[in-house]
Design goal:
Structural class: mainly alpha
Distance between the termini: 49 Å
CATH topology: Growth Hormone, Chain: A
CATH superfamily: MFS general substrate transporter like domains
Oligomer: single chain
Order of helices and strands: HHHHHHHHHHHHHHH
Mean pLDDT: 87
Radius of gyration: 21 Å
Number of strands: 0
Largest sheet: none
Shape: globular
Length: about 400
């Protein structure tokens, strides 16, 4: 019996490692296209902020539909088989951008890419979560978050060098990433759609938590998912704004992406801290503080301190510190949304889809508001920054009001 338990544990570990490897390769390619493309458009086509914001808003819309489709389609096709199909489609879209490097062709490919790419994340989140108890799930999702966020930070930091010296490499590297992902999926020894062994062999995974813990987890999930779109309002808007920020104007593309990746690195470090602690598991009101910190971090990243306080000369230092605050607060909100959604649904693909759909919602709302503001004030991005900050302020008010109301009840 002991040998059987050991064998099952080894299969679980192998399955989890496979998921992380697939996730890393997928994240590498996705970030090159969905974030690196803004810098590519700026350098190759001379795009200003308005067009990048419109593209980001469109990607957000497609992302929502792609995320919500993952659960229904995977029930018919199977998670691993669907992942293989998705890699083929994503690689084909990258090929279209490689052989038709025109603004229209690349924009159309990017929109479709966002929708198809969104469908893979709920599948991977479910595969990484299935069959885990609450404590084990926290460790698994910490590793999951570290993998994609590290790939995110590294890709954004280095993609500027690729774009500057080998523009076509943006698509070539992404294609290679998708091809490698498909190979890993194809060669995996697990049966189609089995993923990680189901939880019946691990009884504690299905033991219902105490009523009070269930109540706290549910409250935390609601607050985190109210705040989550605002995190990606910033992510999509700021990604599109980075090439146009005044503080980065004197720098070349390589240095812009390097300095603009600090908040991604800070988010990655936050995932490590949250994975080593459990204090946040029972403190839903941390979502209020995280949303406030996110608003302050966004404003400090996009607005030069010297514009607010004349005669200061620490613009770059201020931007770096605010990016750290921004990344830490985003990491808190993202971790809470994914962890509480997965632990309450026992690793449901549908819940992963809801989580990703909220990401897409934020990805559409933020750039759309910023683009509309840019029409009012074409010269400069101050009003666009204010529009995004306004949306975050609404989210902060909503999280605060609901937190106070629930606490009083």
């Amino acid at each position: 019996m002991s040998n059987l338990a050991t064998l099952k544990s080894q299969k679980v570990l192998a399955g989890v490692i496979n998921v992380y490897l697939i996730e890393a390769l997928s994240a590498l390619s996705a970030n090159l296209i969905l974030i690196g493309l803004f810098f590519y458009n700026s350098q190759q086509f001379g795009w200003a902020i308005y067009r990048n914001l419109l593209l980001a808003a469109g990607e957000g819309v497609f992302y929502v539909f792609g995320a919500l489709s993952a659960g229904p389609i995977s029930r018919k096709v199977g998670r691993r088989r669907l992942l293989v199909i998705l890699q083929g489609v994503l690689a084909a879209l990258c090929l279209a951008g490689l052989f038709q490097p025109t603004p229209i062709a690349i924009s159309a490919a990017a929109l479709l890419y966002a929708g198809v790419s969104a469908a893979q994340w709920p599948l991977l989140e479910s595969l990484a979560s299935t069959g885990a108890s609450g404590h084990l799930l926290s460790r698994r999702l910490t590793a999951y978050n570290l993998v994609w966020s590290a790939a995110n930070a590294i890709t954004v930091a280095l993609c500027g060098a690729v774009i500057q010296h080998w523009p076509a490499g943006l698509f070539v590297v992404a294609i290679a990433g998708h091809a490698a992902t498909a190979v890993v999926l194809w060669l995996t020894t697990a049966r189609a759609d089995r993923g990680i062994p189901a939880a019946p062999a691990q009884g504690p995974a299905h033991i219902a938590p105490e009523p009070q813990l269930l109540k706290v987890r549910t409250r935390a999930l609601w607050l985190a998912r109210i705040a989550l779109p605002s995190a990606y309002i910033i992510t999509s808007s700021l990604s599109a704004m980075l090439p146009s920020l005044a503080i980065l104007h004197p720098l070349d593309t390589q240095m812009r992406t390097l300095l603009g990746s600090i908040w991604f690195m800070a988010r990655c470090l936050t995932f490590i801290v949250l994975g080593l602690t459990v204090f946040w598991h029972t403190r839903p009101r941390l979502m209020v503080l995280a949303t406030l910190a996110m608003l302050l971090g966004f404003l400090g990243t996009t607005v030069r301190l010297s514009d607010v306080l004349p005669h200061t000369n620490v613009d770059m230092l201020s931007m770096i510190l605010c990016q750290i605050l921004l990344g830490a607060s985003m990491g808190m909100i993202y971790s809470a949304s994914l962890y509480f959604g997965m632990v309450l649904s026992q690793g449901s693909t549908d819940h992963g889809g809801y989580h990703e759909a909220l990401i897409g919602l934020g990805g559409a709302l933020g750039p759309a508001a910023a683009a509309a503001a840019h029409l009012v004030q074409p010269n400069g991005i101050g009003l666009s920054i204010a529009a995004v900050a306004g949306l975050i302020g609404v989210s902060l008010m909503a999280v605060s009001v609901i937190s106070i109301a629930v606490h009083r009840r």
